[in-house]
Batch of 3 targets.
Target 1
Amino acid sequence: MVPSLSSSDNNGHVSSTPDTCSDNKVVPVSSIAAALAKPDESPYYIGFEKVRVDEYHNVSNPEGIIQLGLSENTLSLDLLKEWLNKNLNESLSQGSSDGLINVDKLAPYQQFDGIMELKKVMARFMSEVLGGGTIEFDPLQVVLTCGANPANEILCNCVADPGDAFLVPAPYYPGFNRDMKIRSTVELIPVPTLSSDNFIVTIEALNIAYDQAKKQGKNVKGLLFANPSNPVGNMFNKETLQNLLNFAKEKNIHIISDEIYAGSRYGDDKFISIAEVVYPESIEKDRVHIVYGLSKDLCIPGFRLGVVYSWNQDVLTASKKLTRFCSVPLPIQQILLSMLSDGKFIQDFMKTNQERLRKRYSIFVEGLEKLGLGYVKGSAGLYCWVNMGRLMSSQDEKGELELWDKLMNIAKISVTPGGACHCTEPGWFRCCFARLSVEDVCLTIERIKRIVESVKPKCCGCQCDRNRAK
Amino acid sequence: MVPSLSSSDNNGHVSSTPDTCSDNKVVPVSSIAAALAKPDESPYYIGFEKVRVDEYHNVSNPEGIIQLGLSENTLSLDLLKEWLNKNLNESLSQGSSDGLINVDKLAPYQQFDGIMELKKVMARFMSEVLGGGTIEFDPLQVVLTCGANPANEILCNCVADPGDAFLVPAPYYPGFNRDMKIRSTVELIPVPTLSSDNFIVTIEALNIAYDQAKKQGKNVKGLLFANPSNPVGNMFNKETLQNLLNFAKEKNIHIISDEIYAGSRYGDDKFISIAEVVYPESIEKDRVHIVYGLSKDLCIPGFRLGVVYSWNQDVLTASKKLTRFCSVPLPIQQILLSMLSDGKFIQDFMKTNQERLRKRYSIFVEGLEKLGLGYVKGSAGLYCWVNMGRLMSSQDEKGELELWDKLMNIAKISVTPGGACHCTEPGWFRCCFARLSVEDVCLTIERIKRIVESVKPKCCGCQCDRNRAK
Ligand SMILES: Cc1ncc(COP(=O)(O)O)c(C=O)c1O
Ligand SMILES: Cc1ncc(COP(=O)(O)O)c(C=O)c1O
């Protein structure tokens, strides 16, 4: 027998490991593993990899790449540090008779969906942050997960079967593709929005996308969005939310509203949660589910705390059982229980953090304005949605990727191109500013300037093509 | 239009929430959610629920149900407590210049599959515990997860497609059904073992099960087992492991070896990991994957640390990407990094914990012997596999469930009936002894005695039917 160089499984996946002899067959992996084993092609993930090996540091690597592709907020770590140093031991000693760390409470098994004490303070916190203090959240509807990623996946598992589809107003958070599609194999159908509508989705666009999907035999099960929007940074007003709920009602589909940035506001607008629209009593609540978490608003993605909040009893029961795969360690739960129970700390933290976000945002957009670059006026989030179309050699996907590459390799800044967010208008880039010091914001603007200047060479000031912004 | 009382989705799931009016349709949930929303029917989970509402406590609820259904070890929490009280702050301050908690290291995002420092000490720890110090484990093959449950699920995702099947020597750990079947929808085919073989699976039984599955058109993708065995408590010897690997090679399928109890030994036998059989160089390694974790051997299920260990590059790459749904919080990683790096503590802990397990096991089986109950001589694990067949009114599933009910409601002890573990011989029960004090072991034996005596009424001592053990 002639040894073959590769073998293929049922799913047409050709294994990468060569067969060394006919007796030693290469064992096929699943189609999920085969797909995930391939290198990431999205610039969103390529950017992470590039930064990983050459990240900027003001002292140790001043020529490195500045990371603006990661939605992370480090502006208020000093406050967290202070709190933790003061309260860590106490938080882990809660309920112990000798004042020592309460291992009996931390080590054993507990319900995987979280301890009730933490659900209670989380519900109160959500009522403040998402509901402005006027909407009640019920601890019995809270399911805790290790991060918002698993919360999104769980909701996807609970409302859609393999092959079903979600409508997702685009541009949308690139992570949704992983959360909803890696393992759940549902389809995300981007519903285009326009810069002229401030990237707010219209019911017309939803209807068109829905009808088209139906025509193609797709089973649309829900509407998925981040509010505040990632990557745009704006928020839905009450009327839009009401329209979205009516649309979902008409089509008898679910709504998953990812509100993880609700407390990371830097504008003056009031945030309105989908909870406010279904509140207080409505059968429509059964189709509405909220994702929340502390990764953004408390600046602790490393602590991994996410929330599924639902009014649907079946979804709640199922979600709780699914937390066996994503439960939050008890020490983390105890620390966060203490932290969220410390009303004064939380209030001060939220206020200061929002002020710092606002300042950082202002400096960043001031810089953009000086460069003559447009952006969407944001209200919340850790990023700014910037129009760099005029720096592109062609107004299409190719031009956008070329510019992204230039930004990465010449300007040495890593940003997320709109295409990675399924934005249909080329030229938009998401720039996360909340892990930059003031100096680094200025450096970033300086570096973008290099590109701006390279496409707009100084000349006599005439209106020739080379001088005109595209 | 007449309002209907319920609506049904594509999967034939009838939603439990009634339709209140024809305009307000009940929104269907996924088939996964519909299945999970139903009450648990396995005695394994019913037992948990019963104990939850009426758990025994020597002072506050002395008449409550003693939990022997949960595989948890609390025998060495005192050692953990001492270590944590001494080292917690230092472990969380690692790398900080001011000696304070290093928030810069704990709060931000990190690779979801775990920090390299922890992978390194974990590989060393596995080399000790699984490899007896002679087998090397490579940190690059370690993927960290929040508990062993997600590790099992991830491996299932990586080797099997929906509808594929695993062969699982039975009796097996009931949790496998959830880990592998809730979301992955693979089939677990129990391969029967006999008490006369000490419940060790034979290659003949595997071949029969494999051929039968093939005949039924099933796609067998792997062999799944816990070694040391849960629920039996014994271990595979090297020859059996070699045979299992040969079987897997012949059928070109995977092996998932869950070795989470490798360090919870109380017998004199040496543990042999599947790693030893594939070591040091063999193409067969590509089909072998190990699950490990700290929930059992370090008595910290509340800390949620699990491990996927694989030699298969595709499986490793895919597993790492799947950890976005089950990543370990950084504070937990830092604490465990310190703990596992503390060689003296770990060595003392393992030794003392094993001694304590051995003692508790001895007292328990002594009690069983006095009651005239048989059991499998165990080597590792937190439980004992007990033959209570002679206490049953009929030697079948019904008799087993009746006895289980009697144990729960009359003797007030919660155990796992063999049927819940897919054991084919009725009458076997798994009794976890590692969360009981010595007094509680004695009380448990006392309580079982009630049942023993109720089926063996004192009489003249003749050999009449009522006196003879069935
Ligand atoms: C909209 C949105 N949802 C969820 C997440 C993931 O949050 P976590 O880190 O808690 O999993 C992110 C992170 O960027 C996000 O932007
Ligand atoms: C064989 C086996 N694997 C995995 C687990 C789950 O471990 P964890 O709590 O780390 O998820 C258990 C727990 O009982 C087990 O017995």
Target 2
Amino acid sequence: MRILGLDPGSRLLGYGVLERERSGWRRLSSGVLRLKPNDPIPHRLAEAFTAVREIIQLHRPEHVAIEECFVAHSPRSALVLGQVRGVLLLAARLEETELHEFAPRSVKLAAVGNGGASKEQVQAMIPRLLGDCRSGLGADEADALAVAWCCANQLRSPIVRPAGTLRGAAR
Amino acid sequence: MRILGLDPGSRLLGYGVLERERSGWRRLSSGVLRLKPNDPIPHRLAEAFTAVREIIQLHRPEHVAIEECFVAHSPRSALVLGQVRGVLLLAARLEETELHEFAPRSVKLAAVGNGGASKEQVQAMIPRLLGDCRSGLGADEADALAVAWCCANQLRSPIVRPAGTLRGAAR
């Protein structure tokens, strides 16, 4: 089983794919897409959409996890972020993955054991959780792996779950 | 020459295609897509994206016009609206149309001659401007035709314009 975690932004877009092995979950692939800040928004949206579809087609995750949006931003930045989020949700839907949304608090709780953890704490914990000693994991990449990790935690606890428990969370 | 105007919403999505004829611009097609309110957001986004791509493929407009977002909403509604807007901008970009954004004030000014006009005034003026006596034009359909009309006005004045004047407005 594979899970793709996404951390959307209008300039940096973090992604991380986790794969389940006998011994636990391991990082299969992760990185950051850098969208050109001088490109018009529609160009950046097309770039993000195409890249995420390609990542899904390459790694074939059954699940895609994304953080619920932090809505304390200004309406202007919420609108811009919403546009990027929209094309990512679209890519996940068109590739027939199962979409899951998690509150930022749940993601931090799963990664650090503390819902109020800092970005730096998430960044420090993710390589340890995945037994992955690669240093220099960027914040956006760590956040994407953290939301995938949170999803992995929820999926693995009840091995058999009633249909629809998580599906449709992304309303 | 053809222009597609779009009025995005998370439940109702207005569209209108104008075509230039010798005598002026006429309405070629218009309507409202009703997105199912009980469907999860990713399903609605996929429905909106597919429908708008199909409208573009059917009518082959060279230009797509959309209102700049009214950002006085709450961050929550800006995020939801942003998601819909994102997939429409993406559809326009992937179909290689030229995208134009207009301030709500410019759209009302073009349609009614008054930047502070009401929705009802726009709804009443659009059929007259297009010499189209069809009654019962809905607000979302009228808004979509109004933004296309605003774009038509800007395109027709200087027949030859310097490259890039409007292109890239959707930043």
Target 3
Amino acid sequence: MSDTQMPPAHPFDDDKLKEECGIFGVVGVTDAANFVALGLHALQHRGQEAGGIVSHHPEHGFNSARRFGYVRDNFTSHRLMETLPGELAIGHVRYSTAGSKGQTQIRDVQPFFGEFSMGGAAIAHNGNITNAIALRKELIERGSIFQSSSDSECIIHLMARSLQRNIPERMEDALRRVEGAFSVVAMTRTKLIGVRDPLGVRPLVLGKIGDGWALSSETCALDIIGAEYVREIEPGEMVVITADKGVDSIRPFRPQKSRFCIFEHVYFSRPDSIIGDRSVYETRRQIGVELARETPVEADLVCPVPDSGTPAAIGYAHESGIPYGMGIIRNQYMGRTFIEPTEQIRNMGVRLKLNVNRALIKGKRVILVDDSVVRGTTSRKIKEMILDAGAAEVHFRIASPPTAWPCFYGVDTPQREKLLAATMSEDEMREHLGVDSLRFISLDGLYRAVGEASGRDPKSPQYCDACFSGEYPVEPSDMVEKGFQMKAAE
Amino acid sequence: MSDTQMPPAHPFDDDKLKEECGIFGVVGVTDAANFVALGLHALQHRGQEAGGIVSHHPEHGFNSARRFGYVRDNFTSHRLMETLPGELAIGHVRYSTAGSKGQTQIRDVQPFFGEFSMGGAAIAHNGNITNAIALRKELIERGSIFQSSSDSECIIHLMARSLQRNIPERMEDALRRVEGAFSVVAMTRTKLIGVRDPLGVRPLVLGKIGDGWALSSETCALDIIGAEYVREIEPGEMVVITADKGVDSIRPFRPQKSRFCIFEHVYFSRPDSIIGDRSVYETRRQIGVELARETPVEADLVCPVPDSGTPAAIGYAHESGIPYGMGIIRNQYMGRTFIEPTEQIRNMGVRLKLNVNRALIKGKRVILVDDSVVRGTTSRKIKEMILDAGAAEVHFRIASPPTAWPCFYGVDTPQREKLLAATMSEDEMREHLGVDSLRFISLDGLYRAVGEASGRDPKSPQYCDACFSGEYPVEPSDMVEKGFQMKAAE
Amino acid sequence: MSDTQMPPAHPFDDDKLKEECGIFGVVGVTDAANFVALGLHALQHRGQEAGGIVSHHPEHGFNSARRFGYVRDNFTSHRLMETLPGELAIGHVRYSTAGSKGQTQIRDVQPFFGEFSMGGAAIAHNGNITNAIALRKELIERGSIFQSSSDSECIIHLMARSLQRNIPERMEDALRRVEGAFSVVAMTRTKLIGVRDPLGVRPLVLGKIGDGWALSSETCALDIIGAEYVREIEPGEMVVITADKGVDSIRPFRPQKSRFCIFEHVYFSRPDSIIGDRSVYETRRQIGVELARETPVEADLVCPVPDSGTPAAIGYAHESGIPYGMGIIRNQYMGRTFIEPTEQIRNMGVRLKLNVNRALIKGKRVILVDDSVVRGTTSRKIKEMILDAGAAEVHFRIASPPTAWPCFYGVDTPQREKLLAATMSEDEMREHLGVDSLRFISLDGLYRAVGEASGRDPKSPQYCDACFSGEYPVEPSDMVEKGFQMKAAE
Amino acid sequence: MSDTQMPPAHPFDDDKLKEECGIFGVVGVTDAANFVALGLHALQHRGQEAGGIVSHHPEHGFNSARRFGYVRDNFTSHRLMETLPGELAIGHVRYSTAGSKGQTQIRDVQPFFGEFSMGGAAIAHNGNITNAIALRKELIERGSIFQSSSDSECIIHLMARSLQRNIPERMEDALRRVEGAFSVVAMTRTKLIGVRDPLGVRPLVLGKIGDGWALSSETCALDIIGAEYVREIEPGEMVVITADKGVDSIRPFRPQKSRFCIFEHVYFSRPDSIIGDRSVYETRRQIGVELARETPVEADLVCPVPDSGTPAAIGYAHESGIPYGMGIIRNQYMGRTFIEPTEQIRNMGVRLKLNVNRALIKGKRVILVDDSVVRGTTSRKIKEMILDAGAAEVHFRIASPPTAWPCFYGVDTPQREKLLAATMSEDEMREHLGVDSLRFISLDGLYRAVGEASGRDPKSPQYCDACFSGEYPVEPSDMVEKGFQMKAAE
């Protein structure tokens, strides 16, 4: 059942993979919801469609607010934040649900809340449950009523049916039934809970703020609230945190070798975040260095496709010795959606957002550095703009290997047929885009850039790189059920 | 858990009992949701806070829209109604939930929807489930997750847990667990369902429109869509209606003697509705006639307190021979709520809504006819306005007996202590209001006016009159649990 | 130049003449703007499209707020009213401008403000300047820049060009150039000013509130603020009021015999207002009495067309001895406009607003009393509803003579061709409406009802009755210029 | 008089000089208003508070729309743009008025429109009229009524009072009375008009699009509509453009040596615009080169203060050989204003917008390159963030000379006392900011970077650089009247 609320998402941002969620939680600080709002603002790049916060206060109980739109437009108002009192709160920003075909509904906006016999709990997650459809079917047959189309609601229902006596144990019970790639923040009346799936595909970090604690998808959100970064929650770890007793670590899952999402390094995470003690910015810059080594070309200018290509372009320029310059300028005033746009606006596409710095480009052999090629639609338009401006040559250099497979772990990817690299060779893509050269970093090069000096271990890859390799560390069983063709074993 | 959305209700309308809901459904007509919107507009007096519609279309499945505010401000727009296709739809308008302390949340707005293994169903109800708290507790213990604070959600969960194979039978199962006073409209993918509780406390009528059928709280909503009034759904009856096979009647409950809400005649229903083959307007006029017989007084003018006192005033004037006149004029442009009103607005009270027709009132002995006295706050202010305008005498005549007991069957009543008649005798009330005389119609007089020639049968009253008599036909078990003191048996 | 802001007005209210404005001003009370807001709320029936308030405070200067929509939805908010400090304020509600073809723009919303070399002044008016087009043309030729399409802006420009030293004298200068029917409230930094045109066509009354003074279109707005009614501003009088020195009366115009608008008695004014020491309600009731005497008919029920026909119906019933009853019930929840309504809503027309009390009407010979017939479109629909409900006969009785001429004095009337009475005889109208009889009160009967015992003086009529008689007391020169055909002199 | 509409501007953007307006016009293309909307979107950096468009269509006349907020949120909607038909349109984006103390009112949003006896004209301007107060006083004394607090309205009134027969000649008349620095786009029913003041302080360029023409503040807005850049309108030139006859050039002013605003090169213009055949980006990069030459320092990292410091930082890094890196990351989701923000939000300041890339900064000697220092408030906060992140040293390098004087030519500058450089020496500033070194580019260095090989000509400077030098090319007479102290002649 759908409930109409939101205009369709912006048509010009659709040529990127999209991280679907950011999560944040805090315990042991006054006005916890305010900190959550700030944290979510710092995580806004992980989901711009909607956000929600749940807080708990001993007197006022659980309170929540869910809103479409940016955190800064909703969760900054004195009047709203007053309704979210307490020293314990969690929140969520989202892009859209894997499950929903069309529009998001406010009831799909997390955190979800459930009232159990021993009290209430709220839960928010980042990632995807790959057996959600099967679980949902089973739960409905046993009499559960789902309020949303979000697969994370399964966790709440599994918890409701657990025979355990307290909520953390019920959550353990529930998580053992769940497959996929997910990080979770949850809360009871007194506890902040964090979980990462056994492979640790999606990120989750722990921070310390005064006498309290914070959980966040990325470290950049710890910075904004002035929290100190403590460590990553480990793959397969569940932490139960109270203001007075601190962090209790539990291992609900069978141990496995970790497979962190390598695309967090490439694109999803903010460059000022730290993953595994490495600056994301520095990793991206290093990708540019590797790319320059692997795919040199004679040119006059290294130019980033703003803003995500910038660090790799800086690295490429530095390594190649070719001058770095801003050949494409981004309009700062682009937002996300238009309501009933004029025909002309609809046809403008990327030109509403980007303009070529004609005087700089003119007559030059230009290396354009972008983070990835998904459908290739934006790349074509950018190439046209660059050529219109009088560039002598256009060379695309891509800071990730060809994206040939969809992600089923909480990232919004087009269907496989729409991925340029799924149907074309590198050379066909070059021709399709109409550029003088097109080169991607190798998978090994990417692994080197993220710190694996000897590259990818083909027997047991250190990261989840399914979008490049087609090797899915967790079987996407719901999708296979729906007919998705896995890569044939070699 | 509360989700802040709405300003508190208007402070000047609070001196009335409030019907909490209106329900409407239609099957077998193109664009069924449009008909539901019109029906709900005609039922708006039964609930002004919010409304919702669910429709079903074979291709597009179930769709819903829920909005705060008037039907006419939401469900008239082409753009919204397009999202609700199909030939089957139900809808609901609501005032507020018995259960909620403060503000309504959009997720409390009916109809509710549940996905069962054999398909979805939507349900809306008018009335109250008196064992809802106990049921809810039991269901939560068994693992149900509630999405709202509304007690009607119990029905959906009971249905989800039923072992029956089809939805109507699951609903029968569910309704047998439920106590209270309620009318229900529900729908599956193909069926429109209507139910009245065994005592038939709340109304529900059946209408025919072209080849289709309609269910409505009142006949006035059949008129607006051009439907023909067929009959009342009987107390304890469940009708299952399909476009092709028509109306199937089922009796899920043990038969009982009916106890229709007598206050529907006095105030809740619209005067142009028909209840039990009697015009509500005519009944109210007849109440005025009885009132004039029972409580005559010498005076110069019979004046209604607008608008609900008007028909009884017309009857009183006719029977007494005293001229009828509009001594109080209502401002047509009053709405319901103010957001952050100025101090002055807050203090204006009833003067924002009513003004005295000074030239008519001056020097006259005035009989004011009102439908009821609840807290008495408005009555006092009206008396002051009338005296300020120079009336020689003020006589209140009330078209219902003293309201001394709260209603637990879907009507918003103040706590017992706030009811003027619960703590004062008629004479104390007269003094409290500061009027020359105050008289209420007798309970027998009221029964005569609604057509019971020999008055109320004290052994087995023909109506539910608990608000006057304290005799509750269904034990309000949740409230008793919370400490409500029933009237001692005599 | 048009500036799009508002949806077109509601299509179902268009079968009435519309008063275009209400004006209110107050001096010498704290938070004067709050009093103006309340006064405008009481005058909302005179204009529902938009409202504006200007206040002055010695420290904060002039401040204004203009808003589309009802007074109660805008000028009740603490936050807005705080921006309008001071002890002197004026305000205005409006329906629409005579001049504008389509939509109103916020800059057309009065009061208008002008900065002169000796200080600022704000002005609001009710009525129409009949030589506005000519004045405007002249002023533009001399270099004035108009900010609105409203003809009252002429007054500000004439004042700006006056050679007088103070604002009241500049206003006198300006008003002497202006022809038409108008009442004005204006303010300088210290003075509240009121003016009525020489014929006194439009109303304006004076009230006393504490140490301050109020000016209002009607007395009902004095009641709401608790002000005492002092007297009418006289035709051709200008009052200049200061908090300390009180009311100074000036006569800027050549004296003429007054010609107050008789339609204020019939329809425009609120029934609880007093005009010339007569209650409007009582006058309307008396119109019903005269109507019963002039146009008797055998019938079973006298039924008002709500709400404007009610007092006359009460009078008719009383005089004729036929029972009075509410055969038509109004939906309280109708507003004014729909944005992009569905086809079905568009076709509903009057049924969205009115329903027949079928049980009362059935089988009866019904006398329907309405205030006027303009286009006749609503009358036809009401007749159909009444017959559908099974009435045996339908007799229309109209509380005003046939409306055969447009008003050019601040009232929104259709073009002459659209007025039913302009093109049909009474008998043709009866046939067109399809009723058993149709009768209007005579012009003499109407004059008797408003207190002129010997009826209308044909040599020198006591009222402006141009809409009935075609005798215009002020030549509508702009309209004649545009081709309007005056009635031939007899 | 003020009319409340808008929350106060965002408190964290206030440490920049603000260009106050962008203007755009187009003639000879279908749906001209759509092109204007796109152009204004590209000029949004010149004014984010509000925007307006006026179009003319032979049948539908002049139409306008004015809205608060971004162009993209208003002027992209099909429904709004349909109301602006025609092949001729002009538009304006604005930041705020020099004159207004507090909030902007919708009536202050340009373009302004005036109806003259020979037809209407609309006008929008960028810049400031330095004798506006005196002109306004004179015009009011002669009977003009001002509708706004904007000084550009003077031009319309002067035109209205001109004795010339056609609008372009009236505009010439008006402009000769006006002093200051301004560029104007205007339109009659058939003509698009552009004017630059005699010194050419503010920019205006001409473009060709198909058979039509465009005028724009900057070339970047020609790019977005696909127009070809033709040339700059020359200082003191007035162009009158019709679709069929093309561009007619007029010289209404006495010729003077041009004094273009040098700050357009430093900060106001978009880097992808071209001024005087030079890319703004390239100029800024060159400023960085000059700065590196003038103010070398040993360090490990050159880091821009995003985004305006980026090109100069690239130049500085290139020239100095010190690696370039993004040490500060901007949150893409910052907007401009908060309504009733929480205390915490209010205190966050720049941290809501910027975060330090800790891993990159840690232990490094960092050169921060920013475009200017105004109040110094943001610079201090950035320095703190950098030191908190563990930088070893912080060296500020500023791509403009010390800003010691306010601009009176259409730029929003703090009062002189608030400018850090007005009250402190460079060394005092360094101490105040608490950095290891602080150096500004020299005025000569800046002149060299913009292409004046031999630097600034002190006898007759090539640019307006009053904000640095205190030498005002046009006397700011209104401000002098108000007490502003000009720099003593040396």
